[in-house]
Amino acid sequence: MKNKLRLSALLVALAVIGSACSASTSGGDSGGKASTGSGGNGGGGGGTTEVLFWSPFSGADGAFMQEMVEKYNASQDAVKVDFVIQPSGEYYKQLDVALSTDSDRPDLMIMHVDQIPTYVSKGQLAPMEPLADAAGIVKGDYVEAPVEYSTIDGKWYGIPLDIHPLVMYYNKDLFEKAGIAGPPTNMEEFEAAVTKLTDASAGVYGYVLPTLWPQQFIFPTLVWQNGGEMWNGSDVAYNSPEAVEMVKWMRSLVDRGISPGNVQQDGENTLFLQGKNAIQFNGPWMKGQFDEAGINYGLAPMPQLGKAKQAVFAGSHNFVIPASLKDEATIDAVGDFLKYVASNSIEWAKSGQALASKPMLESDEFKALPNSIIAESFAHVQFAPNVLNWPTISEPIWGELSSALLGEKDPQQALDDAAAKSRQAIGK
What we know:
This protein is an alpha/beta fold. Helices cover 42% and strands 14% of the residues. It is built from 18 helices and 15 strands. The strands form four sheets. It has a five-stranded mixed beta sheet with strand order 2-1-3-13-6. It has a four-stranded mixed beta sheet with strand order 14-7-12-15. A four-stranded mixed beta sheet has the order 9-10-8-11. The radius of gyration is 22 Å and the shape is globular. 52% of the residues are buried.
């Protein structure tokens, strides 16, 4: 069995290497090179228990997790964590096959927090309390938002690694040239800043409006900030007057010349890298790319652009285990690794992420990092609605929203059409 598992992991490694995972800005788990390992389900020989650990970190962030795993493996002899990276775009398809067939399935997995309810509903995840209790992992040592989200029917299914909210990047050189002292924090300051920063004759824009990714983070943030909801408890609600108002505002940035029109995928990031886009809303995962490019940039929490409240959409990577994992030695080994991560995850923070472990957030090491400012957003982060199959339900939003932002469709009509398609997905 172990030889089969090692062969399987090797094939996964070759597939990852051959998949040409080129650098991309389309999400926190995408772009860059992959790292792999081999492992098995169950105890290993020679007194060492092997843990097969899957993740979608096929971008630059994968190297940071790889280093953390290697440091753990070097710190003791009882457990060997074999780290396998699946291509991010195929991750959940690969996971579905592994979990449904129980063939060469991982012992430990990274799962986005908004995926947890769906996998729990399918009976494919095990509660984490027994493992956590045995390992001395305390639920109260983690930021509340992801813990509450992953607690379903009183059972805790995900131990959070990080929280990655939408953040604001800004070009310090352009801000200095425009005489702007610091990043905007509200709508009035934002409007004043982007107006001063825009120099159409030089091809420089105050804010370049993305029409595709990362609207998956931007649109919900603006809806919530303006007093709207994505889901009202029984139906989609993202076509409300509050939501439409913010879509109209985004399109007005193009109409007023603050942003160019017809921005295609990653166009806003290309201009930011060229020093022609002063402000970009994106995720913490962009840090590595901007550092490598040598941009003089600043990082700040997302400003409140809506009228109602401060809120920001966030994701969270969580550790989960399959319901089919029964081997006690392997469960104990997973617990030991996660206990280590709880107080030794600074390597992951260096990838640009903000950690979910409170002891790590309070550590001097984390506070010294520029991205520690991201934790200021934790008090008002919101995740995707805790609804089964939300990724499928919400999928119609993005094409219709793009049409509205490109000026091809009336904002109200676009969101109404998306809502109708979402209701079809629900079965209404």
